[in-house]
Amino acid sequence: MTNQIKTAVVGVGRWGIHWLRNILEHPQTQLAAVVEPNQERLAIARKQYNLDESVLLTAHLQQLKEVDKLEAVIVATPATTHYKLISDALRWGYHVLAEKPLTLDSQECEELCQLAEASQRLLMVDHTYLFHPAVESGKNVISSGKLGDLRYGYATRTHLGPVRQDVDALWDLAIHDIAIFNYWLGQSPVQVQATGSVWLQTTSTQIENTPVKDTQTINQNISAFSPLQSSSPKNPNQGLSDLVWLKLIYPNNFQAHIHLCWLNPDKQRRLAIVGSRGNLIFDEMSQDSPLSFLGGEFEVRENQFIPINQSREVIPIETAEPLRRVCDRFVHCIRHNTPVTVSSGWVGTELVKILTALTASLHQGGKSTFLDQNW
Question: Residue 205 contacts by C-beta under 8 Å, 6 or more apart in sequence?
Fold first, then answer.
């Protein structure tokens, strides 16, 4: 196809290799370069996809400036490297799609969003679940009013590993479910709480001794907490939490409760919202019915609450790879010069602020942390 978007992939590790495949398969993109400092990974990518000699393979980001008519860069590297890579790419005039989280610091996130706007370049974050057909269909179900008045939500994300050594289970796992709740509700939490337990890594060489400040708003204490620090609720200088319990409170007092653990052989990827008329469940582990509605409400009879209208309905969803849909949206926005909304850099910034507030709560043993909504 002519006029394909020439694209570079930066990082071809566990997730970047999937991006490489999508760019090669997409009819409207042309792989122009792969940047990867690990020569073994670079060689594997070359062999696995039989990359043409016209594709630049390099360990140095600076060499992208030598690629003629390059338009887009996909950053699939560790989050600690994002700020420099993304800012360079934007300054060189490229559209950028970055893996989540956008960075580990909300101020850096804001600076990148402002840079993208000033450069008139697209900055998108790969929050893949927001493009999952079940999540999109779930949004439509909630918007239709099928659940009635929304009561509360809950989610569980557990598995036996992988265990990270740079961040805790909060920063590794929570962003997915928080993103879905925010998307389904059309809101962001105003208050959060987090508690956790540490078993495997009781000490960490990456921890810094940062004082905990007793504050009411995240804007006052946001700089005191880093995801690279310990998340032990008892001692902010010891270990990375393997188990985390979260509570998110939204403006209408809707509460979402999230259970996260990478030390649990019972693998679960389940999220639900309960309403006055029923329950919407997204169960990623269910191949037959990942999205379902459980109907049920109460009728009052002589001061007794009698269950009525109980039912189960499987919600039909489209069969599509979420990552391919992310790629489609990125390409569409570039081609039509339209902003991305559902997974923009600003959405990514908001999620980083929420994770930072949760870290603050975790450091303070579950103390409520309030978020400033005037971002």
Answer: none
Q: What's phi and psi for 180, nearest 5 deg?
A: -70, -45
Encoding tokens for residue 77? 């590297």
Q: How far apart are CA 28 and CA 255, in angstroms?
A: 42
Given a contact cutoff of 8 angstroms between Cβ atoms, the answer to whether 46 and 22 are in contact is: no
Nearest CA to 341 out of 17, 125, 156 is that of 125
Between CA 351 and CA 359, with CA 355 as vertex, the angle to 5 degrees is: 170
pTM exceeding the 0.70 threshold for the entire prediction: yes
Per the CB < 8 A criterion, the answer to whether 158 and 369 are in contact is no
In sequence order, the β-bridge partners of residue 160 are 263
> How crowded is residue 246: how many other Cβ atoms within 10 Å of its Cβ?
26
Say which residue the tokens 């393979």 belong to.
Answer: 57
CA distances from 369 to 213, 215, 241, 271 (A): 11, 8, 18, 23
Mean pLDDT, residues 295-315 taken together:
94
- Which pair of structure tokens corresponds to residue 303? 């001061």
